[in-house]
Design goal:
This protein has about 300 residues and is of the alpha/beta class. Helix content is about 40%, strand content about 20%. It contains 10 helices and 14 strands. The protein has a 5-stranded mixed β-sheet with strand order 3-2-1-4-7, sandwiched between helices.
């Protein structure tokens, strides 16, 4: 049996899985809210208690942990993630290894999701694959030559930090960054910018009244609202710029994109593809397929389990 911990700023999950031939079957899952009013060690103890109850008398062979960075995967330390206030230099791998007595591995959530899609999802069978989160933020996990590539200090794949325009929405604290255009927060910023311009021209977009976010703008675009369509056109074009950099630099055979792209590929891909066709080396673009994530809402479960399998 494999054991996984998916640690987030709002919720945490404890997951178990078993091997069935070449496949992995999630056998159990338990979620709890992340309590930031207690110490990280107390929160981890709660997760351990849940795991002990799930496991019972079964034996586990390995543990995987998926958590937002920054972290040190080699030393197994969580290092002050912005969504986990107070989790400063938490030696989570040592804590879990001491309790369970089995190998334990830690990766940031983008890397863990890349492993999940590579081993169990849209990237199965590939040797060179890139996974883009495209949710609250935009990060990437890199599978290169059949291995997870994490960089010198676990910061490889921060594609969202690249500035692709001199001006634009803010992501990663950087105006005009790829995350500024291609993330939930970025689309929200774009939506407000385009809304102001539309109102100046006497136009009231369908998403103007109520909460403005990636989903409400996408819903309006799906119903034919021209301003909303223009928001996603801009996002798609900037995504195409970012994908062109990845394709030319890393020459992957597949790029898997999650969350917003999975839900709204119909609003994004046409414009991204047009940019790729103009920007990329054709010989590299021809061998790279860009696809939505297939693991959907279960990707966090498979991410933690995938990390448990990394050393196998």
């Amino acid at each position: 049996m494999l054991l996984g911990f998916d640690i987030g700023g709002t919720k945490c999950a404890v997951v178990t899985a078993v091997k069935s031939g070449e496949k992995i079957v999630i056998s159990n899952k338990n979620k709890i809210f992340t309590d930031l009013s207690v110490s990280p060690e107390e929160m981890i103890d709660r997760l351990i208690d849940i795991a002990d109850n799930i496991i019972g008398n079964e034996k586990i062979s390995s543990i995987g942990i998926s958590c937002g960075g920054p972290l040190d995967s080699k030393k197994g330390i969580i290092m002050s993630p912005p969504n986990l206030k107070g989790w400063n230099n938490v030696h989570i791998v040592d804590i879990l290894k001491k309790h369970f007595g089995v190998p334990c591995h830690l990766q940031n959530d983008a890397n863990a999701c890349a492993v999940a899609e590579w081993k169990f999802g849209a990237g199965m069978g590939t040797n060179n694959m890139v996974f883009l989160t495209f949710g609250t933020g935009l990060g990437a996990g890199l599978i290169l030559d059949g291995k997870l590539y994490t960089g010198t200090n676990d910061n490889a794949g921060e594609i969202g930090h690249i500035r692709i325009e001199d001006d634009g929405p803010i992501g990663y604290g950087k105006r005009g960054s790829l995350e500024g255009f291609c993330s939930g927060g970025g689309i929200e910023q774009l939506g407000k910018i385009f809304l102001d311009k539309a109102k100046e021209n006497g136009i009231t977009p369908m998403y103007a009244n109520g909460e403005i976010n990636a989903k409400t703008i996408a819903d309006a675009a799906d119903m034919g609202d021209e301003t909303a369509i223009a928001v996603y056109k801009t996002c798609g074009e900037k995504l195409g710029k970012g994908l062109s950099v990845i394709i030319d630099l890393l020459n992957p055979e597949k790029i898997v994109i999650g969350s917003i792209f999975t839900r709204s590929k119909n609003l994004l891909w046409q414009y991204a593809k047009e940019v790729i066709d103009k920007e990329c080396l054709q010989i590299s673009a021809d061998v790279c397929e860009v696809v939505p994530s297939t693991l959907g809402e279960q990707i966090g479960d498979y991410a933690a389990i995938g990390v448990a399998l990394l050393e196998e």
